[in-house]
Specification:
single chain, 248 residues, mainly alpha, 71% helix, 0% strand
Length: 248
């Protein structure tokens, strides 16, 4: 069981309405943080295809990291290699925050461009609105959390799902913006591969939550659903050699 739990990730499509969530974030209500402005690229059609692919992949990575970070926190609470789990979680928190900065600011030497549309910028603001309190609760509790800390574990579970949805919304808006300017990127291949990486993290997170008895019935249903999603995506892509190579 433990070896399976150590792989992990998940996916759910953003259904709560990105536009309303983005409006909350912009007005300072998304997660209790003040509004921020993100500059939008003036000429998205000029963005290189490699940069497009990189940004789509990195926005998808944020959804995966939201689940991987939560999984590592739940490993700490479960007593599974706590020192290693803390080290990995701290590293992935840094990666998430650094990537979010590059996505919003278009760090050129890291192969990012400014957000290619206002919808992308709004999606990144929305994602940002969930990040600080999630990060703070993780770091504040990583040395003390145990399986008995139900309130903390439930908070992290709920916040990880919200952050995952927000990151998926950003990925979707990047893919839409790339299509709108006719960018030469393998968007579908990137999206399916990213989904599979995320789903493995989500499955592990859900298995840990079941073991911790945190909403065990609900998480069992979520795990069944996530497993079905992974299997369906794998079967639909099993004949696509380029996708399999990308995932490996």
């Amino acid at each position: 069981m433990a070896s399976w739990i150590r792989t992990g990730l998940g996916i759910t499509l953003l259904c709560a309405g990105l536009a309303s969530g983005a409006s909350e974030a912009e007005s300072g209500h998304g997660d209790g943080h003040e509004a921020e402005q993100v500059e939008v690229h003036a000429h998205p059609e000029a963005i290189d295809s490699y940069v497009w692919a990189h940004m789509i992949d990195m926005s998808a990575q944020q959804a995966m990291l939201s689940q991987e970070i939560a999984k590592e926190f739940f490993q700490i609470a479960s007593g599974i290699s706590p020192a290693e789990s803390r080290e990995n979680m701290t590293h992935h928190v840094h990666v998430f925050e650094e990537t979010l900065f590059h996505l919003k600011n278009g760090t050129q030497h890291k192969h990012f461009a400014l957000p290619p549309s206002q919808l992308v910028a709004d999606a990144l603001i929305y994602m940002t609105s969930y990040w600080p309190t999630f990060k703070d609760e993780l770091l504040d509790n990583m040395h003390t959390v145990t399986s008995a800390d139900y309130a903390v574990l439930e908070h992290i579970m709920t916040k990880s799902i919200a952050l995952m949805h927000a990151a998926e919304g950003a990925e979707e808006k990047y893919a839409d913006a790339a299509k709108a300017v006719g960018a030469d990127v393998a968007g579908l291949t990137l999206t399916i591969a990213a989904r599979q990486r995320m789903l493995t993290q989500e499955m592990s997170k859900e298995a840990l939550l079941i073991g911790l008895n945190i909403e065990a019935h609900t998480n069992l249903e979520r795990l069944k659903h996530t497993t079905d999603q992974f299997r369906e995506s794998h079967e639909s892509s099993s004949g696509d050699r380029s996708l399999l190579e990308f995932m490996l």
